Amino acid sequence: MTSILASFFLLLYIYTTISIISVLLLENRNPVKSLSWLLVLVFLPILGMFFYLLFGQDYRKKKIISKKSIRRVIDRPVASFDIDKLETLIQNESHLKLINLLYKNNESACYANNKIDIYSTGESTFEALFEAIRNAKDHIHIQFFIFDDDKISNQLRELLIQKAREGVSVRMIYDYWGSFNLSKEYMKSLHDAGVATGPFLPFRWKISMSNKINYRNHRKLVIVDGKIGFTGGLNVADRYMYGNNLGIWRDTFVKFEGSAAHGLQLLFMIDWFFVDQNLLEGANYFPEPPKFGNNLVQIVSSGPDTDWESIMQGIAAAIMSATKSIYIHSPYYMPTELITGCIEMAALSGVDVRLMIPMKSDSRLSDASTFSYLGKSLEAGVRVFRYKTGFLHSKAIVIDDYISIIGSTNLDERSFDQNFEANAFIYDSETAPTLKKLFVQDMENSEELSLESWSNRRRRQKLKESFARLFSPLM
Is the pLDDT of residue 10 over 80? Predict the structure, then answer.
């Protein structure tokens, strides 16, 4: 009897493994990603199958958020600029191509004449966020990947409760997995005060082919009264203010006053419809925006709900448009072949390319994998800096003192393909120099990595990094 059961489970395992491998092959994914999952299934048979069912399935073609719901929200009266009139504002052909690319691959409208403020510390960011929320009159829409149940998060909670009791409509989206530590008391106090909350893709305790635990909402959005909008890479956590074992976390956030707030509002409304099944209606969400500086902004989203890897394509096109300089912040640097190739070609062509990564991140596997990507870039002439005063968590790119890209997207496979992300592509001759100046200041707190130093690593270290790289598509 025992031998019969053993034979049955062995046959079941072989059948399931072959079925999963067949699905992997038929999905026609990136070969490296498919190979990574095959390695997991071969070397960790039972556990690997469990991980695949939870984390490995590709939902991009299945559209986790339906196009029907997106179209219903997109019909809102946003103050976007006529894409056909861009030539009167932007003369550079490569910039026009980038704008048109993001319009076609993501329906990213152009928002003109914004007031733009950049924040590079947790203290300045939360001060600006709290001030905007404190002054809210009609509504507050807030969305983060992580709300920690800590000092700064509880200050925000108390402020949201206060505004809700004043009659302001408050809606909050949190990623179920990223904000897993939120206590029942934390959430109850918000609900009791009238704050509407929605968890994004809550985890269900069942193993099935439909589990979507691997797809997380990594966006960071705050919109106040439809007039002020924030986005960037920061989460709601004490480590951005007071630090942790890695030190204080260095991040970048941007505030928009003007029409770009409508782009952030639109994105929040799409996500809110998904988590709450409630379509927000009313002109109060899109008030007539004032006009400020001479600039353009595109709010670009990507994730399993988009037909294209919009942000990755936008970043690649922006890099290839560079003629003078490219400065990149990235906390987790495990780029796709497309991004790697664009960066290396830019450096080889004589563009001043500088990449800043953390000396140490919150993931040892990520750190090891990152180092394996640096050799060819160093050979091509990319200058690599390792930030050592705390943890560099900023996701910001500045190109030719004109294009700035700020948002939630890391330069890795997870951000480009699996997470729901949001980035602002800013075309402005004032914002870009500000970002560039911040990068130069960060260089003073960094150590430059030379090609010689990278090449002289111990063989054991190189093997460790190369092994970690095999799993980079899964991180």
Answer: no
Calculate what percentage of the chain has a pLDDT beyond 90: 61
60 pLDDT more than 60: no
Residue 193 and residue 231 in one domain: yes
Q: Are residues 42 and 73 in the same domain?
A: no
Whether 61 is a known active-site residue: answer: no
**The total number of structural domains that make up the chain:** 3
Partners of 254 in the beta sheet? 118, 231
pLDDT tens by residue, 312-356: 999 999 999 999 999 999 999 999 999 999 999 999 999 999 999
Judge whether 236 lies within some domain.
yes
Active site residue 67: no
Which amino acid is residue 282, in one-letter code?
G
Known active-site residue 395: yes
Residue tagged active-site, from 33, 255, 329, 395: 395
C-alpha to C-alpha distance for 342 and 322, rounded to whole angstroms: 10
**Does the predicted TM-score (pTM) go above 0.85?**
yes
Is the same domain home to 262 and 287?
yes
Residue 225 appears among annotated catalytic residues: yes
Range of the structural domain that residue 266 is part of: 67-101+113-293
Distance of alpha carbon 191 from the chain centroid: 28
Distance CA 110, CA 326 (A): 23
Q: Measure the CA–CA gap between 99 and 385, rounded to whole angstroms.
A: 30
pLDDT band at 365 (very low <50, low <70, confident <90, very high): confident
Q: Residue 90: inside a domain, yes or no? A: yes
Q: Is 141 a catalytic residue?
A: no
